From TrEMBL:
It comes from the Bacteria. This is Uncharacterized protein. Keywords: Membrane, Transmembrane, Transmembrane helix. It comes from Granulicella pectinivorans. The lineage of its organism: Bacteria, Pseudomonadati, Acidobacteriota, Terriglobia, Terriglobales. The chain crosses the membrane at residues 12-36, 42-59, 66-84, 90-107.
Length: 117
């Protein structure tokens, strides 16, 4: 890939960033309103912070932002899958698969090559 496309934002990346900001906002609001009980409340806030910082890094096409959002999409996919399995809520499988698709999109060679150091 030539250097003229390095640092150029893809539409898929912008969409994933918007989605991850919504997921982080929903997580923070759930933690503040007492939806999560026990230690989960204290896990959601750092993960949401990691996602927001990563999103702003990814929007600037930085490799560290890409890595943080990549980890966030995989972490959220696993979390939704685990919750769907334990609660029997089939709708959470859709969320898990959607985040897995975002993980796979961010793992593509075309996306990785556009990242700046």
């Amino acid at each position: 890939m030539s250097d003229d496309v390095k640092g150029k934002l893809l539409p898929g990346i912008a969409g994933i960033c918007m989605w991850m900001l919504v997921v982080a906002l929903v997580g923070v609001m759930g933690a503040l309103n007492g939806v999560y009980t026990g230690h989960a409340r204290y896990v959601v806030l750092p993960v949401a912070t990691m996602i927001v910082v990563g999103v702003f890094g990814l929007l600037r096409m930085r490799r560290w932002g890409w890595a943080m959002v990549l980890a966030g999409t995989l972490l959220i996919s696993v979390m939704y899958g685990y919750t769907a399995r334990t609660t029997g809520n089939a709708g959470l499988w859709v969320m898990s698969l959607l985040n897995l698709c975002f993980f796979l999109y961010l793992s593509r060679t075309e996306v990785r090559e556009r990242m700046r150091i």
